[in-house]
Amino acid sequence: MNRLAYCRYIAVFLCLATASCCYGQHSEEWLSLSQKDWDIKEAPGEPGAAAVQLYYADFRDDNSRYEFVHRCIKVLSDQGRGYADVEIVVPREYHFEDLQARTIHPDGAVVPFTGKPFDKVVLQHREDKTVAKTFTLPDVTTGSIIEYKYRLTWDLYFHDPVWNVQHDLFTLKESFWLRPYKGPLSTPTAGDRTQLSFVYSNMPEGIQPRDTSAGVELELENVPAFKAERYMPPEDNFKAEVRFFYGGHEVESPEVFWNNLGHRWYAKSERFIGSYSGIKRAAANIAGGETNPEQKLRNLYAYAQQIRNLSFERARTSTEDRKEDLKPNASVADVLARGYGYQNEIAELFAALARAAGFQAEMLRVSSRRDRIFDIKMLSEDQLDVEIVEVMLKGSALYLDPGTKFCPFGTVHWIHTSTTALKLNRNGGVRIVVPTASAEKSVIHRVAQLELDTIGSLRGQIEVEFKGTDALQRRLEALDSDTTGRTRDLEDELLSWLPQGSGVLFLEAQGWNSSEDPLVAKFEVEVPHFASVVGKRLVIPTGLFRMPQMSAFETKDRKYPLYFPYTYEELDNVTIHLPPGYSVETLPDGQDVKLSNTRFITSRSAEEGTVLETKALVVNSIYFQPDQYGNLREFFSRLKASDEEQIVAAPASLGDRRNIDRGVSLKEAAGH
């Protein structure tokens, strides 16, 4: 399979006189199983695979408003029996109908599924729920074949079709068909005829959809399973798939589509921003006579951040809006007067205030790389649905994100960086990339004050300080939780860093509702048997905090790039007070290890029965190609080995070495 290297865009003109579909070519009957199917003992090229998919079909008729899906899977091991538990995500406004499912045993016995599927919430973001229909096929054993088929139907609204060509199982045969919608659509240009475009990516060599009189069709055989890797970029950008888009003349090409949208977005934002005397007065009052340009801009940004942001609250019904007297905003003047707005409205208010204060401020439409990296050939305006602001400050472009709740000044939410943005202008806009913030914009600083007893257990307090993007990320996640949930999340995160078996008790947290201040959490901790007892000596590991990202380096090689959401720094200061009468006998040297975009520094010292340890890790890039993986794996292996070094402490009667210093101080290395 070619990864991201084979991506084609095709526009199909849909005439109302298109020939009728040949329905007989797309059977919805049960699969006719052959002896060859029963003889399969392993997936081709994937020894040890839990199951193999014998057949997958996706037939869709957008005129009759239905989609038929059919899957047939052979279970190859006990682990593969898990495929008997089925979850089918049902999009909003769609209906799940005509489910048929069965288990077939090697002796030919058929056990039909006779129950009813039940609803399961598989994802919830505030009030937005993703619901799946779930059911379990009966009597599934190793060697069984499980088969199920169903329909999705809709009344009026339908989502742009997607063919998921690559699955988590090796698939012997796949069949796809789409009969395009031929009726009228609401398009940007009145009178446009309905058109369909599609883009396919990561397909096997020489394979592509065919436009026929029956519709768009695709047949494949022997499609490898998609095997995700830890810390890889969004998976959808690497899977084989076909995406379809309806529209008018704007879907003739990506250039026409995005230029058309750029014109519309520019006109819309400029109309909303307008020119209002009240905005000019407000900007002068907010600036407060400040003459320093950066501080003046900070004041305006802080004001925009305190506007009530409806995009980061739960969804409301129209009845609830009326009860709260929440009215739609028609301009930035409305946002200013009413004190509330949605994400993009707040961004536009900030741009209006900045312009009124004499700054050059332009609107940008930005994409999100949380789930998928922007693809210009994917004709969906949802790819660029959020606005940020570019402000010229001292001759340089400064990117600001006032519409994201809690986003600090000078920072853009990481999901909108290192990916495509459209800088709006009257000519349709210019595509740019919003740069990723450097590592010092996202810091986790852990400070531990701990007492070690004679059996090797640690007790004490740990304070964790989150700055910049790390603070923003946790504040946004906390919006979906209550106080109990926030506490549990912080405790679970600290436990994930500490040795297994540790105990954590949350004490307090400060800074949940701030954009600029750090988020600080304090805990009491206990780490049983952290040090080993060897005779009268204590052997103490040098690393208290584990690194979850080490799981990215378990394999020798990688197929896909290594990807971190954002650059970051981790700083640790650990103080361990030894048992009375103990002192340090041996202390490992500190280390300073560098690559072009990564560095770690350790320093260890001991004085008067106390061990002092510091560690700084800097990762100043988010994307590492597979050919960089070996060096990066070696870097993190050395960091892991550094954490596994040992300090030996003993009663003073066995030796007295009170003051020992090993390593480079963090101040000395501040020039990283």
Topology:
Elements (H helix, E strand, L loop, with lengths): L6 E7 L21 H5 L11 E11 L4 E10 L9 E5 L4 E11 L5 E3 L5 E8 L2 E9 L8 E10 L7 E3 L6 E9 L15 E7 L8 E3 L2 E9 L17 E7 L6 H20 L3 H11 L5 H13 L2 E2 L8 H7 L7 H7 L1 E2 L1 H14 L4 E6 L19 E8 L2 E5 L19 E4 L6 E4 L8 E11 L5 E11 H10 L4 H15 L5 E8 L8 E9 L4 E3 L2 E5 L20 E2 L4 E10 L4 E5 L4 E4 L3 E10 L2 E10 L3 E2 L4 H15 L2 E6 L8 E4 L9
Parallel strand pairs: 2-11, 16-17, 23-30
Antiparallel strand pairs: 1-12, 2-3, 3-9, 4-8, 5-6, 5-9, 7-8, 10-15, 11-14, 12-15, 13-14, 18-19, 18-21, 19-20, 21-22, 23-24, 24-26, 25-26, 27-28, 28-36, 29-35, 30-34, 31-36, 32-33, 33-34, 33-37
Helix pairs in contact: 3-7, 4-7, 6-7
Structure, described:
Helices cover 17% and strands 36% of the residues. By secondary structure, it is α+β, with helices and mostly antiparallel strands. Helix 6 crosses helix 7. It is globular and about 90 Å long. It starts with 6 loop residues before the first strand and ends in a 9-residue tail after the last strand.
Query: Describe the biggest sheet?
Result: 9 strands, mixed
- C-alpha termini separation: 40 Å
Examine the secondary-structure arrangement and name the CATH architecture of the largest domain: Sandwich
Number of helices: 10
User: Structural class per helix/strand content?
Assistant: alpha+beta
Sequence stretches where pLDDT stays below 50 over 5 or more residues: 1-6, 13-24, 664-672
In percent, how much strand structure appears in the residues? Answer: 35-45%
Overall tally of structural domains: 3
Question: Outline, from the CA principal axes?
Answer: globular
Mean pLDDT: 91
Kindly state the percentage of residues in helix. Answer: 10-25%
